[in-house]
Amino acid sequence: MTTEVLSAILRANLVGAAAILAVLLLRLPIRRLFGPEVAYWLWCAPPLAAFATLLPPRTEDGAAARNALAAAVDPVSAPALLAWTLGAAVVVTLLVRAQLRFMASMHAGCGGPAVVGVISPRIVMPADDGTYDDEERALIRAHERAHVSRQDPRAGALASLLQALCWFNPLAHVAAHVMRLDQELACDAAVLRCRPSARALYARTLLKTQLASQALPFGCYWPSRGLHPLEVRIGMMRDARVHDGLVGPLLIATTLALCAYAGWRAQPPVPRPAALVEHWRVNAGGPTMSVLLIDAPRQADR
């Protein structure tokens, strides 16, 4: 059982890592062609592909042994599983600590704008100290409400959970970070799609906003660190084109379906179960007994 669990974890991480690399390559071209909102949906591919490896595998006649990966990890299965559990516990502890630190900053009046929470997300507005006028505060509220309506806090929580489960996979942490950045671009685009005349005001509001300097694992905030400088968000606002139609969503849906199928196909097949050929009762003048004949699949390399 321990070996099977460890094999499933490794297989899911390998397939998920391949999907992450594909998304990192595709996100920029898809964003230029169809906009940030469509490109953001690409991040559904890694978890879908990883979870597909946990579905029941296909069966084939004369299939190769399914235990190849299990045999490779069997000698170290118990210590490795213990290390994985401890590592996941450490990452969860760090995420909870970061959440509590952000909440303490929020209660001290330094948090916001942000959406905090997963089950019942709450919008945190910056202090009303005269920094923003009424129109700018209205844009900030529209941005945070867009996060809530798009279920972005729950997507961020799922990304944090996958970081904990895949803590030893560096691509999982890169994906969680870049996904949050694309999430902000998609939210910006959703707000401006409804308020196309507010681009200049939106850009000025971004420049004035006190950008979050602390991590928020369970929520949404306006990040400025790492791979996503503020000028990228403002630069996206110069594109006044509205990407509409079905081509982009259909392309993303096809991509997600292919990723899920590829993840399922990545599982090694299991041999087809033996077929029950005949079952009858024999009574040769003595006690009655049941006879069951089994037609086992032939193995050419036996």
Automatic annotation (TrEMBL):
The keyword Transmembrane helix applies. Keywords: Membrane, Transmembrane, Transmembrane helix. Signal peptide: none annotated. Pfam families: Peptidase_M56. InterPro entries: Beta-lactam_resp_regulator, Peptidase_M56. Residues 8-57, 110-236 form the Peptidase M56 domain. The chain crosses the membrane at residues 6-26, 38-56, 76-96, 246-264. This is Peptidase M56 domain-containing protein. The lineage of its organism: Bacteria, Pseudomonadati, Pseudomonadota, Alphaproteobacteria, Caulobacterales.
